[in-house]
Design a protein that fits this description.
By secondary structure, the chain is an alpha/beta fold. The chain has 4 domains: about 10-145, Nitrogenase molybdenum iron protein domain (Rossmann fold, 3-Layer(aba) Sandwich); about 160-275, 3-Layer(aba) Sandwich (Rossmann fold), CATH 3.40.50.1980; about 275-470, Rossmann fold (3-Layer(aba) Sandwich), CATH 3.40.50.1980; about 475-535, Orthogonal Bundle (Helicase, Ruva Protein, domain 3), CATH 1.10.8.550. The chain contains 18 helices and 16 strands. The chain has helices at about 10-20, 40-45, 70-85, 105-110, 130-145, 180-190, 205-210, 225-240, 250-265, 280-285, 300-315, 330-340, 350-360, 370-380, 405-430, 490-500, 505-520, 525-535; strands at about 25-30, 55, 90-95, 115-120, 165-170, 195-200, 220, 295-300, 320-325, 345, 365-370, 380-385, 460, 470, 475, 485. Strand 9 (about 320-325), helix 12 (about 330-340) and strand 10 form a beta-alpha-beta unit.
Length: about 550
């Protein structure tokens, strides 16, 4: 266990809350101490939902530990059923309540409530939020759809040529990154392919909808982190095939269309071509040529990282210089994608490791979570959020999908904006001697930075936000064997020339030049040294 001030995922019971909050007619009774009710704020404050999550907490306190906490749980479950009258109930314990081992599942079963009650075994100290959501959805599907399963070995009926095929869309949850809009875009795509949407789950589904999942002809797995386990069970039990392509980006959307058409035995409609999105032409247009080869670092959940890396290098012309995920269950897929690009994937949930990897990779754009947004802002690098966890601004009121052809348009606008602004800052930098464009005024899109010192401290690189720690030479040995502490000093002329370099690569240029000076035993870094270093590292 590691103490941290920030985490990419909450404990698994938060994942269960995401499923319960997404559904209708389902209630979650959570055995938890009073302090664990903080999770409500994730939905009401960050996602801006109009109602509290359908969760009843037992909210035991320290003085209750000497009493019968099992009776406290049963009373809470009984009152929740009477008050909310749900169609089904899930029961479990938070990470704190897990330690007292009251067995919420067994206690609820003994009560004999007249609705399905689904016990959740979510090991809080070895698993995390997305796993908890996936396990919760799987248990709900297995419990509610299981009674309608055919006998083992029963062959699945062929598609009816006289009726439109039906598909379930699986995976969207509460607190998901653009899930609401992705569902709309995916339903639109399916309709254009002649496929009806049977059930969307868990988002807006009722327990009675879950019970009829097996009636669909196939399943669309939008978010594997949430739906892959349940879709796998449906495939084994009902013989339902499932999609494997997530339609994020033009290329992936085309592959998704081809996969769906193969499942229903239809030809790909000519109307659904890449021209349905503006991304392909915009990324090739003369206005976008300055984007080609931009260095990009990608981090987030596995689904969005894999998709973003493909869009970045195949559709936008970027160079992916680093990628990773906090989704350990899908680490193998991310490692394989990184290996194809000559990279080693970063698999971690430690944001400090991610920050150091970004510094080492020296990208010009970061595609990540809310945490990478903070990191990139501190480092003076452009950033676009592509994955949960996110903050309130990433639940926009407008329609902003990530999937489908319209989602590709959103990706282009979202990713290009930080780079366009970066070019604007470079132009401002060219005129920094003018009083209105001085460093004291700060970067226009980063707020107003405080006045910076005249020279950086040893081992620091200036950006338009604040100094960034790098790893300079511990000491420099000059040609006459004199030892200098830290990197060689810069002449005023060299410093002035360095400021002409775009701010988003200035740190890398400084680091490379100081390394070059140390390797060649130079006493100071002059204008000539800067140019020599550029030629050396440009080979």
């Amino acid at each position: 266990m590691q103490l941290t001030v920030w985490t990419y995922e909450g404990p698994p019971h938060v994942g269960a809350m995401r499923i319960a909050t997404a559904m209708q007619g389902l209630h979650y009774v959570l055995h938890a101490p009073q302090g664990d009710t903080y999770a409500d704020l994730l939905f009401t404050m960050i996602e801006r939902r109009k109602a509290r999550p359908p969760v009843t907490y037992t909210t035991f306190q320290a003085r209750d530990l000497g009493k019968d906490t099992a009776e406290l749980f049963q009373s809470a479950a009984r009152e929740a059923y009477a008050r909310f009258e749900p169609e089904a109930m899930i029961v479990g314990a938070s990470c704190t309540a897990e330690l007292i081992q009251d067995d919420p599942g067994g206690l609820t079963k003994a009560m004999g409530l007249p609705i399905p009650t689904i016990p959740l075994e979510l090991p809080s100290y070895s698993k995390k939020e997305n796993w908890g959501a996936a396990e919760t959805f799987y248990q709900i599907v297995r419990t509610l759809a299981g009674p309608n399963a055919p006998e083992p070995g029963t062959a699945r009926a062929a598609l009816n040529d006289s009726a439109r095929p039906k598909a379930n869309i699986l995976g969207p949850t509460a607190l998901g990154f653009r899930h609401r809009d992705d569902v709309i875009e995916t339903k639109r795509l399916l309709d254009q392919l002649g496929v009806d949407t049977h059930v969307v789950a868990p988002l807006d589904a009722r327990p009675s909808d879950i019970a009829r999942l097996g009636e669909a002809d196939f399943n669309v797995v939008l978010y594997p982190e949430i739906a892959h386990t349940a879709a796998g069970w449906l495939k084994r039990t009902f013989g339902q095939p499932m999609t494997s392509v997530v339609p994020i980006g033009v290329g992936a959307t085309q592959d998704f269309i081809a996969e769906v058409c193969a499942l229903i035995g239809a030809d790909v409609p000519p109307a659904l071509s890449p021209e349905a999105s503006r991304l392909p032409w915009y990324s090739r247009s003369i206005d976008s040529t300055y984007l080609t080869g931009k260095r990009v670092f990608v981090f987030g959940d596995a689904t969005h990282v894999l998709a973003a890396a493909r869009v970045a290098d195949e559709e936008m012309g970027f160079e992916v210089v680093g990628m990773g995920t906090y989704s350990r269950e899908f680490a193998r897929d991310v490692r394989a994608a990184a290996k194809d690009r000559g990279l080693e994937a970063l698999i971690t949930d430690d944001y400090l490791e991610v920050e150091q990897a970004i510094i080492d990779a020296a990208p010009e754009l970061v595609l990540g979570t809310q945490m990478e947004r903070h990191i990139a802002k501190r480092l003076g690098i452009g950033c676009a959020v592509i994955s949960s966890p996110v903050h309130v601004q990433d639940f926009p009121a407008r329609y902003a999908p990530q999937m489908g052809f319209e989602g590709a348009n959103v990706l282009f606008d979202t990713w290009v904006h930080p780079l366009v602004m970066g070019l604007e800052e470079h132009l401002l930098g060219m005129f920094r001697e003018d009083f209105e464009f001085s460093d004291d005024n700060g970067a226009s899109h980063h707020g107003h930075s405080p006045k910076r010192p005249q020279a950086p401290a040893d081992g620091a690189v200036f950006t338009d936000e604040q100094p960034i720690a790098v790893t300079p030479p511990a000491e420099t040995q000059t040609a006459d064997n004199t030892l200098l502490a830290g990197p060689a000093p810069w002449t005023a002329e060299a410093e002035k020339e360095l400021k002409k370099i775009p701010f988003f690569v200035r740190g890398k240029a400084r680091k490379n030049t100081e390394t070059f000076a140390a390797q060649h035993g130079l006493r100071e870094i002059t204008l000539e040294t800067l140019y020599d270093a550029k030629a050396h590292f440009g080979r």
